[in-house]
Amino acid sequence: MPPEPTAAASPYSRTNPFPARLLINRSLCGEDSGKDTRHFEIDLTGWGLNYEVGDSMTVWPTNDPALADEIIRTIRAKADEPVKSPSRETTLREALLRDCRITQTTPKFLKAVAERASAAPLLNDLLKPERKQDLDTYLYGMEVIDFLIEHPSIQWTAQGLVDVLAKLQPRLYSISSSLKARPNQVHFTIDVVKYESRGRQRKGVCSTFLAERAENVPIPVFPNTSKFRLPEDGNTPIIMVGPGTGIAPFRAFLQERKAVGAKGKNWLFFGSQHEHCNYFYRDELDELKRDGILTRLDCAWSRDQEGKSYVQHKMLENAAEIWKWMDSENAQFFVCGDARRMAKDVDAALRTIFQEQGGKSEEQTNEYVEKLKSDKRYKRDVY
Ligand SMILES: Cc1cc2nc3c(=O)[nH]c(=O)nc-3n(C[C@H](O)[C@H](O)[C@H](O)COP(=O)(O)OP(=O)(O)OC[C@H]3O[C@@H](n4cnc5c(N)ncnc54)[C@H](O)[C@@H]3O)c2cc1C
Ligand SMILES: NC(=O)c1ccc[n+]([C@@H]2O[C@H](COP(=O)([O-])OP(=O)(O)OC[C@H]3O[C@@H](n4cnc5c(N)ncnc54)[C@H](OP(=O)(O)O)[C@@H]3O)[C@@H](O)[C@H]2O)c1
User: Which class in CATH covers the domain with range 7-59+171-224?
Assistant: First the structure.
């Protein structure tokens, strides 16, 4: 076997990502789950690079071929027509598969539709700067294909369409494994984005690329360094709050702490919809508890009773213990997952705990939180 290339010698970079291979793609949900959250294991043998737990991975997806083909048919073009895409000279089909964003619209695309369509008064009106909010509401759940179907009178050339589409962007995923526990691999915990709007089934580009189209094709990946790091001292206790896919980096943290024999206590707050079908990694967490690695595990099942139970409610139920870990035992506090609501509510719960348990005023609490952040004892990886 040839030796593994070293990081310095690795030919891979953000502009030349490593072509990884899918090893495992399995559901983390039971049969009657309303969500499709999946566990992925990806082979990195031969990449010669490194990542640390807490990092994320950049993944370059390919668009859904069925959607690309539908776009080509709808504009009555030929798949092999030559075009200049945002990154190269290629064919229309290749550009729509690999180079262009073909789901969400761009202002350039909408303007082109409004200018060329014989009847698009609504769109013309919505494109006025003062109607930005109405435009966003109108566009929610609308994709490029909807406009192409709705305005068949527009004569698109292949190049004309490619010119008004944006560049397909890669996606980031929190890494859910440790190289010390799973050498040459990276694991992800991904919610597969699927929803219906205006009578069509829509699919998130990258999550469905991995879930449905990545078997036997290269998955271009490159690591993305983060500041979301375990404490350097393995004796430092950590509190981890990771509902939903937010559990990803904490699975990696626990693997790493077990692999290096770190003695620090580990407390995980996990939250999901239903205990019977959305308890991600239950067997692994049970084993980590048995091994004494996972000191405490508190789960919030949001839809198993009247009224919501969320991770922040579990935190408040354990306020005195959290305060003890943070104030007397110098613990570090980590949050991962939804930025829009969860991370804000968890932050508010943490402040309530500091006020009530620590006897602090609002101002003292703000200072305490700022100090935790500057001491790198309160870290967030939210999206
Ligand atoms: C640092 C970081 C770490 C991340 N880690 C993870 C992770 O560990 N696991 C994970 O699953 N994700 C993670 N994400 C999110 C991930 O990067 C992608 O954004 C996510 O997988 C969706 O990408 P997609 O290409 O599948 O969907 P896209 O093609 O990007 O589609 C998503 C878009 O679809 C639209 N949409 C979604 N639902 C609806 C609806 N019901 N109605 C109308 N429109 C809708 C919204 O515009 C949304 O932005 C992370 C993001 C960051 C920044
Ligand atoms: N950029 C993207 O396209 C993208 C992709 C993936 C995820 N995300 C974001 O990440 C979020 C998390 O997705 P996910 O699949 O990991 O998790 P999720 O399954 O949507 O949520 C996990 C758990 O958190 C609960 N929850 C809802 N609101 C909460 C709050 N304010 N505080 C605490 N817990 C709350 C949910 O309860 P209920 O559902 O019962 O209320 C559920 O039990 C998504 O909602 C989305 O905002 C974005």
Answer: mainly beta
**If you write DSSP's letter for every residue of 18-68 in order, what string do you get?**
EEEEEEEEEE-S-TT-SS-EEEEEEE-TT------TT-EEEE-----HHHH
DSSP character at residue 235: T
Distance CA 320, CA 96 (A): 55
| Structural domain boundaries in the chain | 7-59+171-224, 65-163, 238-382
pLDDT along the chain (383 residues), means of 10: 60 96 98 96 96 98 98 98 94 98 94 83 86 92 95 94 97 98 98 96 98 97 97 98 98 98 98 98 98 98 98 98 98 97 98 98 98 98 94
| CATH top class, domain 65-163 | mainly alpha
pTM of the model: 0.95
Residue nearest to atom 11 of ligand 1 (CA): 190
Cβ of 60 below 6 Å from ligand 1: no
The rounded Å distance from CA 139 to ligand 1 centre is 17
